[in-house]
Structures are given as structure tokens and as C-alpha cells.
Amino acid sequence: MKLIAIVLTFNESLHLARCLASLKDVAAAVLVVDCFSSDDTLDIARAHGALVIQNAWVNHATQFNWALTQLGPDTDWVLRLDADEYLTPELTTEIHSRLPMLGPEIDGIYCNRRMTFQGCQIRHGGVFPIQVLRLFRYGRGECENRWMDEHIKVAGPTVKFDGEIIDDNLNSLTWWTEKHNRYANREAIDLLNLEYGFMPHDSVADLHNRSQAGMKRWIKERVYARLPGGFRAFAYFFYRYVLRLGFLDGQAGTAFHFLQGFWYRYLVDAKVAEVKRYMRDSGATVTEAIEKTLDIRVGH
């Protein structure tokens, strides 16, 4: 059984060694797909025995699906892991013991992802446990073709492992807010695409498969996206911070739930409104307005 891990990188010298160390006893090989880093990312990857290739960045989904085309036909399973994530020893043990026992009908494996923010584990607000499909049988899975919040999708049966992936970014709050400003551009594109349909719509939204990701995406696309902009950001924050007890996460947790659950989503709505205002004032198409206001080319 040959398991290959794929890690996408750009200037990840702060996290990569920890990530690769957690894969040492799990993956037969690690493929690091780098977007022309300017720090020590490549040296760290090679020092840990990873195979390194470089490719220009479009978005996460495009980069990951391109990485899949670089794997050999002898690959059995693929593990997707972000550079600022790592596997717990419990998940490592579980992969060793349970993966070889799975029948050929199983296409993918869900596990829990635990989030940290400013050194604090986030335990409330509906953020944990989040079930993510990160391990799948080669040739039977791929990443959704989306600009933001992309998931791995498989067609066949899945199982659930109990071990965890830890998401623990060590960068500063300034870096975090700058990253989420860029994320807001990408999420605005997905929301605009729901309304205007300028790109193919690829989604795991499906209540019938009963996966957590599918149900959350269905709610996001069929309910949240239809609420008034701005109001929906406040409603989501109220749900997370009050109804799902996010206030119990303490000072760091309050900052996280406010910034990620309200500020970020309000920023997305403000960017959607900016694109529509440009369309109205200039007569531009939605893709032209996105390029002018968000500086991203889509639909080409």
C-alpha cells in the first residue's frame, strides 16, 4: 500500500518542518508543490526527503488537482495536508492500523480537524469537531473547482477515523488579517458566481450524502447566500458566538470568532457590493468588474 502526501507551499519555512515530521511514519513519499517561494521552504522540504516541484499559482483547487497529475500510477492513497497543519500521533496510528483493512469500495476517509488561534485551541462556536476528507483513494478523488473553501470530493463510500489534524498557524495577527483579506476576494467570487454563473459551479453541497461538509455547503449556498449582505455576517457571528457558545473560548477565542465569524464575512459582503456597484456605474460585465475591483481574472 503506497500513500503519497501532497503539501502545497509558498514561503512556509515557519511551518513546513513540523508538517513533514508528522508525515514521516505515514507517507511513502511527500510531494511538495511550491509556488516559487523566496524563503527556505525548498531547502527544508528537501532536507526532510520530500520531492519538490514548482508550479505557478492560480488557486488552491487548480494547484492541488495539477499535483494529482504528477503522481505515479502505483499510488494507492493520497493525503492532502496544508503546510501549517500536522497529524496527531493518534491519527498516524489509526492510518497504519485501519487503512490496510479497508475494502476496495471505500473511496475516502474523514477525520477531525482541530483549530488553534493565537496559541489557543478553539473548542466552541461550531469550529470543532470539523470533519474533513483529506485521505482518498488515488484516481477516485479530486478537489472542488472553487476559488475558496474547497473540499476533496469522492463519489463512493467513505469512513470516519477518530484521529485529528491540527491546524496551528504560527504567523502574526497582521499576517492573518492580510491573508483573510485575500480570502475575502476569493469567497466574493464564489458568491458572485452563484448569482451570475460565469464559471462552472462545482460543489459538495448534497444533503443526501449526509457528510458534514456537504450539509454545511448546502446551507451556505441555499440559505446563507440568499440572506441580505451584511445582515448574514452578523447572523452567523451571533450563531457562533452566542448559540454555539463561542464566548467560552476566552479572549483569544473572542478575537477569532469576531474576526473570522463576523469581520471576514462582512468584508466578503462589502466586496460583493463593490463589484455590483462597479457593474452598475460602468456597465461592465461581472468578470470585468471583478478584475477591476478585486484584481483577479476569472472566466479566461
Automatic annotation (TrEMBL):
Domain Glycosyltransferase 2-like span(s) in chain numbering: 6-93
Taxonomic superkingdom: Bacteria
Keywords annotated in UniProt: Transferase
Tagged with keyword Ribosomal protein: no
MF terms in GO: transferase activity
UniProt-listed CDD domains: Beta4Glucosyltransferase
Family note: Belongs to the glycosyltransferase 2 family. WaaE/KdtX subfamily.
The protein's name: Glycosyltransferase family 2 protein
Organism name: Allochromatium humboldtianum
